[in-house]
Structures are given as structure tokens and as C-alpha cells.
Write a structure and sequence with these properties.
59% of the residues lie in helices and 4% in strands. The chain is built from 19 helices and 6 strands. The strands form 3 sheets. It has a two-stranded antiparallel ribbon. Helix 9 links the parallel strand 3 and strand 4. Helix 8 runs parallel beside helix 19, helix 11 runs parallel beside helix 13 and helix 15 crosses helix 16. Bound molecules: arginine. Arginine binds next to helix 7. The site of arginine has 10 residues, from helix 7.
Length: 475
Amino acid sequence: MNDSDQHTRPDTAPTSQIWGGRFNSGPDQVMDAINPSIDFDRRFYAQDIAGSRAHAAMLVAAGIISAADGAAIDQGLAEIADEIANGSFVFSRALEDIHMNVEARLREKIGDAAGRLHTGRSRNDQVATDFRLWVRGAIDAIDGQLRDLQAAFIEQAERHYATVMPGFTHLQTAQPVTFGHHMLAYVEMFGRDRGRFADARRRLNQSPLGAAALAGTSFPIDRDSTAAALGFDGPAINSLDAVSDRDFVIEFLAAAALTSVHLSRLAEELIIWTSAQFNYVRLPDGFTTGSSIMPQKRNADAAELVRGKTGRVIGALNALLVVVKGLPLAFNKDMQEDKEPLFDAADTLSVCLAASIGMINGLTVNAPAMRASLAAGFPTATDLADWLVRALNMPFRDAHHVTGSLVKMAEDRGVDLADLSLADMQSVAPAITEAVFAVLSVDASVASRTSFGGTAPELVRAAAAAARARYMAST
Ligand code: ARG
């Protein structure tokens, strides 16, 4: 017995009732493992049944099937939806996918009328329709979570519009900013993500239903009515494109990948800020874990997992780009591989968003530690240089040089810029006056950053209110 014998069913194996008319024998056993999608595409059963009910109603309205058959189909499909919802439906891998599982059950319930449902359509337009509907729902759910995340940031910003902390470039102390300003940076980032998902939603919202296998159909179907019934903006324009397009999956994954990258950057900051060396924030207990050996530990596990799971979402985008890249028009079975990466990415993004919302909502800020760390790193050096420009009319390049010399002097003595005496300052630039000390404090520094989009507390407070109006008003 060679390998292929082992995997081959006897010739008496039943052929598929649904497509087996031209076959003498049933599928090889390997096909049981490679062919079915029912284990994952059952996830869009509700969309599949909604699509079938819309299609059947249209067939009746167009006079293609009888009202009696249409009523039996509709009633049967409604019952099947209940069976699946309450867990009593028995799925069959031999029936490959959700479409054939539902149709076979409909035949058990209503007999031959079930065979009329598939008039003027194909599994190719059916699956494209179902999946678009599912992805559309996923986009709406993610938009709600992104909005909740923005709300959490806005609340922190309202609370901490004046809480000073070092702003960093290269993770080196750069200039003072407020924590509220930092929170609002994320509001913008996730606002763009919402825009990308909304944009993808607009493009995906066309109905493939009625494109049939690839060429359209000779039956007088009404694609506008099924599109409207399913909440699409209209029918997809070209039947070949309608069944072969998976751009909507890729666009979703691209938006999800970038959103995940943003969540990962946030997670990284939370991990840095919760370290004992920074100690800027405390995560809620519910999102941290202890160590089995080191009793003092409070690990930011949720943030680390958000950072780590980003790899899966990026991987899903890559997987889909590779699946589609060599496919000729129109449908190819390869396209069945679109579902698992998308489901995994959607689930992963959703749980990462939930964790991020929880962490930001419950974040407590250690304002004294943030302020204390501004004592190091000369965060107001730029303020000194700017003062030299403003008060002494020095060219900025010269002011930069003078300030650099004063920073070196302070560094050599182990003190802050504000601790140098006026005589120290004048030894480098004789025209400096006592007035310079007014710009060297952290609070003066942030208060002076009043240019549009800057970190001055009054601006941050106004920006938080504006963000609330911009992002929280509509649902
Ligand atoms: N299970 C298939 C999928 O997920 C449904 C479409 C099958 N079409 C076909 N011609 N075999 O894409």
C-alpha cells in the first residue's frame, strides 16, 4: 500500500450532493484536511443567511421563483440562523463551507425548494458578499473601540493639561512638555487610524451579490435591491472584479497593522514609564502581574503583550498580500486563505485595543517624579538660546553656541543652568542680564510654547476640548 492508497477513499465514497454530478468517486482523504473552510467561515453565518434571504426575496420580486418557494426558503433560513445561534446546528466538514452547510440543512427542512435559492448566484459572489459584510461590522466595532481609546486619552489630557514632564527626542531629555500634550498626540494618531478604517469601509461597501460565478447571470435579477437590502451603497460595477477583489481584506489589514504599530509605540512608552528608573506612571493592578520569584515585581504584561501581538497583525497583512499577488481573475480557491488571517488580526486588534483602553483609563500619573526628572538634562537650554535671540538680538546660531558653552559650564559643576550666577553667564556673553533667569524655569518654558499646536498648558486645555468636540460628538 503506497501513501496515496492510504489517503484515497474507496471508489464507493459518496460524491458531494451539491456539486458532485460529474464525479465518479469522492474526494481523497487529504481533501478532508485541506479543502473545508467550515471551521472558520461559520463565523459569518449570520451574514451568509442575511445575504441568502435578501437574494431569495429579490428572486421572488423579479418573478424568478414562486412566492411560495420564497416564503419556505425565508422561513427555513430564519430557523437555521436560530439553530446556529443556539448551538444546535450540526456542521459538516464534508459540506466544505458555511454556504453548503446552510443549503444542505435548508433542503432537509423544506425539500426541493431549497435548490431554487442558488438561482442566479454562485458561492463566489456569495462568499465575497458575506465577507464584505463581516469586515464592515468589524470596522464598526473597531471604530467604537478607537473612539473609547481617544476618550481615555482626552480625559487624561484634561486632568494633566499642566502636568510637566520631559519631552524626549532620541529618548534624551529635549524640552519640557505637558503630559496632557503627550496624551493628545495619541488622540491624533488614533484619529488617523479611524480615518483609514472609515475610508476602507467606504470602498468596501459595494455588493458583489449577483456577479454570480464571474460573468453575471442570464436571470433578470435586481442587484440594486439586494445591495440596498444588505446596506451596501450599490452593486459592485464589474462582475469579474466583484468576485476576485480582496482589496477590502488587505485594506482592513493595512489599517489594522498601522493601528497595531501605534498601540505598540504606546505600549513601549508605558513599559518605559512604569520602570523603576522612570516611575512616571502606575498602571492599574488589573493590567500588571507579579513575579513568581521576585516579590517586588509589577510587570507591565498587558503592555508587553500589546507590543508583541503587533507581529501577528503585521504578519496577517503580509500573508494576504502574498496570497493575492499571483492570482489571475476571477475566483481562485487560494482566496479561501483570506479568512483566518483576517479573523486573527481582527480578534488580536480588538483585545489589544481593550487592554490599551483599560490601561489608559486606569493610569495614575506621578507628577512629582516627572517634574523631578526635569532637573537633569538641561531641558530649558533652548529657552536660554531663544532669550539670547529675543533680548540681545543675537543670531540663533551664535545663541546656540553661547548656550552650549553655558551648558558645559553647568555640567562641569554638576548644577542646572538656573544655578549659574549672572557673572558666570556674562563671562560667556557679557550682554546677558538678570532677566534671563525668568525663562529658565520649566513652567515658564511650557507656558511660552504658545505657537499653534504647542504645549503651553492653556493651549493643551483648549486642544483637549477641541479634540472632544472633533472626535466624540459623532458616533
Ligand atoms: N469556501 C470558499 C471560500 O472561502 C467559498 C467559495 C468557493 N467557491 C468555489 N468555486 N469553490 O472562498
